[in-house]
Amino acid sequence: MKHIKTFYSMEMETRHGQVIIEGPVPPEQLEKYTFHDDLVSFRPPLKQQKALVEIAKLDEGRIVIIRNGETVVGYVTYLYPDPLERWSEDQIENMIELGAIEVIPSYRSGGVAKKLLQLSFMDEAMENYLVITTEYYWHWDLKGTGLNVWDYRKMMERLMQSVDFVYFATDDPEITSHPANCLMARVGKRVNNDTMERFDRLRFKNRFMY
């Protein structure tokens, strides 16, 4: 499968001034930016920047960012599922994962995360993909937001639904380990039945085990 990427950019007014939302950002451009000190949800900012540069180098990898000037204050990643997860057991060429979304605390609640996702799907090529996302409560910033697990889950669902992600049931042990965890996916307009059947087989591994 040929992975076609078309760069998009938009400006947005926030309470911190004008920001630029853009992507997919090529790796050489991503290296030139500074990652904000508060981008610490997954790893320290410098290490996270290096990780995103490596994703951007992948054929299927896509990084969409929010930046204020030259400082990145938020991002979302798309790439093939982690080789250690069940979602990579059948290497479906047109199934990618929304791997991480992060916006620094001072820029949250202003609609920037929604714009980040909306710009991601402006690219018509995204209609070729089944895009999955796995939501685990232990990745959520419950302390920083003051939300409980269920309110955070509702917030994430609303965010994902804004770009046509829907809920899918699964027997994946990590997801079923807590009732707030969930699997969501966005089915592109050109995703065929074969892809969905293969996805169904990944979702349910134990349907015939009693």
Automatic annotation (TrEMBL):
Please name the InterPro entries in this protein's record: AcuA, Acyl_CoA_acyltransferase, GNAT_dom
User: Mind listing the GO molecular function terms for this protein?
Assistant: acetoin dehydrogenase (NAD+) activity; acyltransferase activity, transferring groups other than amino-acyl groups
Gene Ontology biological-process annotations: acetoin catabolic process
Q: Which residues does the UniProt record annotate as the domain N-acetyltransferase?
A: 37-119
Domain of life the protein comes from: Bacteria
- Offer one Pfam family short name for this entry: Acetyltransf_1
Name of the protein this chain belongs to:
Acetoin utilization protein AcuA
Its organism's taxonomic lineage begins at: Bacteria, Bacillati, Bacillota, Bacilli, Bacillales
